[in-house]
Amino acid sequence: MAGAALKEIDARVVKKGAAGVLERAAMAVADLHKQLPRMMDSETSADRRGRVIEAAQNCAIHLLRESGKNIRVTFYQLDYAETEQLPRSTPGDRPIEQARLILVGEPLGRGDDPARDEFRYDDRGRETLTKILAKEEIWCGNARKQARKMKWPRPRYRVYISVPIVVEGKVEGMLSCDSLVRSELKRSIAALVKIPANFAGMELRTLESASAPVKPGV
Q: CA 170 to CA 79: how far, in whole Å?
């Protein structure tokens, strides 16, 4: 449903005369933001959350469609392990050693190999967590060469780009795109991928606020 709505939105955006790709992307996301409440009417909270994630993934694939059909988009949510407080940390701290990026929903797009379930600081997800929590984008033009160098399992994809999902200055997760074709995801695409990533963050925060219990008046 989200994919079909996005195609209809894009057709209207083109008619409006949006010139650049970023301008077209921003307008499409703005219209999708207006469409979502109607798309999600009468659904459960879990269904609505899934719809937002699906819309963000569809939007990323849609915006990158000129790059080819080899792209896959995955959505990760930031979480922290429920463990004992680490030494030398103060109450309220969230040590990076306890941070995890957990796969939410199903990968969208190319579905020929499994997506990673989570990234943790104590394995090969250390660099990813460090950069995402620092609100930095990650781009790798040769994932197979990187895997050989670091002695990781060889991935089927060749190139990937990941961007943090930031809401009100706080990192909430990560949107990641990978491709079988090295030339399809250039570093400059990061600005484009951030649009659906931040869209998802804002929509999920809105859903979270709407479902929060109302505190009784004093």
A: 13
DSSP 7: H
User: What φ, ψ does residue 52 adopt, rounded to 5°?
Assistant: -65, -45
Task: Determine the length of the chain.
Answer: 218
Alpha-carbon gap, residue 54 to 48, rounded angstroms: 10
Q: Helix, strand, or coil here: 4?
A: helix
Question: Positive or negative, the Cα torsion across 50, 108, 72, 32?
Answer: negative
Total-model pTM: 0.77
Residue with tokens 């060889």: 154
**SS3 state of residue 216:** coil
- How far is Cα 2 from Cα 8, in angstroms, rounded to an integer? 10
Q: Which of 176, 95, 158, 81 has its CA nearest to residue 130?
A: 95
Beta strands 118-120 and 159-167 are: unpaired
- pLDDT (tens digit per residue) in 146-188: 989 888 888 889 999 999 998 888 899 999 999 998 888 888 8
Left if phi > 0, otherwise alpha if psi is -120 to 50, otherwise beta: which for 8?
alpha
Angle between helices 21-39 and 2-16 (to 10 degrees): 130
